[in-house]
């Protein structure tokens, strides 16, 4: 009798092997060349990235017509990348951007994907972050906070979720974009916060990560959105943080970059989505330790009782704390929280993946070897690189030590606020500007 045939590889396995092989060849070549050549390979190509980004602000090819409903996102991806590089645009281009986004602002609140398009939470987040990134009186004052507040309240659902747009989908991404915008504009109130924590808690999966909606698969982008939202509404300790931490740290694979989901391919954009999650979690190590201790003490209890320990640890009493917390200041106060002394992921390895595998020498960054550069991946690869570089710093306002920056120290980017993904200096300006409004 013949032995059973070996099972054939799945499509996912074959794709994974191809990617690992491509990455291994890059790393093997890097290891084989002289140190001076290695330094060149690790250099962030600032001038070429700027050429790529400025070209996108000036003119886009017809192929970009598929992003007609995402033009505020293009503004954000490009201008945030420029800000991360420590650069800015000229006055004419800044004024044109403010004027364009003003025409995207709906008369009844929120921003659409283009002039005359329906308001949408995703493009509202992109537009607001773009205006914060530009900074200055004209940009920040162009946001109609009262109308935007009305739009956010219209999108709010009784179960705590938000719709992305009128009769649109309800998911964790909608919660984050609504709460993030409300927080930075100083319009976050109890009505917007009500039941949001319950909705996000229902999206945390058995793996530990957070899905887009209840019953779906844990995903890096939604995990960032869910965790950041829970921080901004001061309910982060309701999540199962030990399990979330375990899930996210195991998403950094042999390629040194992050994957977005279990058994999926590495992708440069998760350098931020997953890297920022790990960075955020470092500020809650005391809560994580308490949750782990509570579970260890209750090993004999049922799973339901153990879950209850997680949702009530640290004395959380539901929304009863709202009267004691200034929710609009959480984003600013969060930066003052102490962090665990060491990063929970391999920061230098992730920088290596970004610089050697995601960076294109002619400018722009990409998903992985074999993919093309684009503005989305340029934005989130650079954002992730910034998170890596400052991951060992106790004070984000101070430059990190040279050992924390892979390659020449000229690779150092501007620090970002990990909850909002805007350059820290621009966030502080916006916070000061909007705190003057009641």
Are there runs of 5+ residues with pLDDT below 50, and where? 305-322
Bin the helical content.
40-55%
Shape from CA axes? globular
Q: Give the rounded overall mean pLDDT.
A: 91
- Rg estimate, integer Å: 22 Å
Order of helices and strands: HHHHHHHHHHHHHHHHHHHEEH
Question: What percentage of the residues does DSSP assign to strands (E)?
Answer: under 5%
- Counted by DSSP, the helix tally is 20
**What's the oligomerization state?**
single chain
What's the main sheet like?
A: 2 strands, antiparallel
DSSP strand count: 2
Which strand order does the major sheet show?
1-2
Instruction: Give the termini separation.
Output: 82 Å
Category from helices, strands and their pairing: mainly alpha
Structure description:
The N and C termini lie far apart (82 Å). The chain has a two-stranded antiparallel ribbon. The model is unreliable at 305-322 (pLDDT under 50). Helix content is 51%, strand content 1%. The radius of gyration is 22 Å and the shape is globular. Helix 4 (71-84) packs parallel to helix 19 (375-389). A hairpin with a 4-residue loop joins strand 1 (416-417) and strand 2. It is an all-alpha fold and 438 residues long. The chain has helices spanning 11-32, 35-41, 46-58, 71-84, 91-104, 121-134, 137-141, 145-155, 172-184, 190-193, 196-201, 220-232, 241-249, 270-281, 285-297, 303-312, 330-334, 347-358, 375-389, 424-434, and strands spanning 416-417, 422-423.
């Amino acid at each position: 009798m013949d032995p059973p045939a070996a099972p054939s590889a799945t499509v996912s396995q074959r794709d994974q092997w191809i990617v690992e092989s491509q990455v291994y060849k890059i790393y093997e070549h890097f290891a084989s060349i002289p140190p001076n050549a290695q330094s060149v390979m690790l250099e962030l190509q600032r001038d070429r990235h700027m050429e790529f980004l400025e070209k996108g602000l000036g003119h886009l090819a017809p192929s970009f017509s598929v992003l007609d409903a995402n033009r505020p996102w293009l503004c954000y991806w490009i201008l945030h990348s420029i800000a991360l590089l420590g650069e800015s645009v000229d006055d004419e281009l800044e004024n044109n951007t403010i004027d364009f986004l003003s025409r995207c602002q709906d008369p009844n609140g929120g921003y659409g994907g283009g002039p005359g398009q329906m308001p949408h939470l995703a493009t509202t987040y992109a537009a607001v972050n773009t205006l914060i990134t530009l900074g200055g009186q004209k940009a920040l004052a162009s946001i109609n906070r009262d109308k935007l507040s009305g739009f956010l309240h219209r999108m709010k659902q009784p179960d705590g979720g938000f719709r992305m747009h009128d009769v649109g989908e309800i998911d964790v991404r909608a919660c984050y974009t609504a709460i993030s915008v409300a927080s930075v504009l100083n319009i976050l109130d109890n009505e917007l916060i009500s039941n949001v924590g319950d909705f996000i808690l229902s999206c945390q999966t058995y793996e530990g990560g957070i899905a887009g909606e209840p019953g779906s698969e844990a995903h890096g982008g939604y995990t960032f959105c869910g965790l950041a939202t829970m921080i901004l509404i001061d309910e982060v300790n309701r999540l199962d943080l030990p399990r979330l931490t375990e899930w996210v740290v195991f998403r950094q694979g042999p390629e040194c970059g992050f994957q977005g989901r279990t058994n999926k391919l590495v992708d440069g954009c998760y350098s931020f989505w997953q890297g920022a999650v790990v960075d955020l979690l470092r500020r809650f190590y005391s809560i994580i330790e308490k949750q782990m201790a509570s579970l260890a003490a209750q090993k004999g209890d049922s799973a339901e009782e153990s879950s209850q320990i997680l949702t009530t640890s640290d004395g959380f009493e539901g929304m009863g704390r709202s009267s004691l917390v200034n929710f609009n200041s959480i984003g600013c106060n969060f930066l003052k929280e102490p962090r665990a002394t060491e990063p929970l992921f391999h920061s230098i390895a992730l920088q290596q993946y970004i610089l050697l595998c995601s960076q294109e020498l002619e400018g722009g960054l990409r998903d992985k070897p074999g993919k093309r550069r684009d503005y989305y991946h340029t934005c989130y690869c650079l954002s992730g690189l910034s998170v890596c570089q400052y991951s060992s710093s106790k004070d984000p306002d101070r430059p990190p030590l040279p050992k924390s920056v892979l390659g020449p120290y000229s690779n150092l980017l501007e620090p970002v606020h990990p909850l909002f993904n805007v350059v820290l200096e621009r966030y502080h300006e916006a916070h000061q500007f909007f705190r003057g409004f009641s």
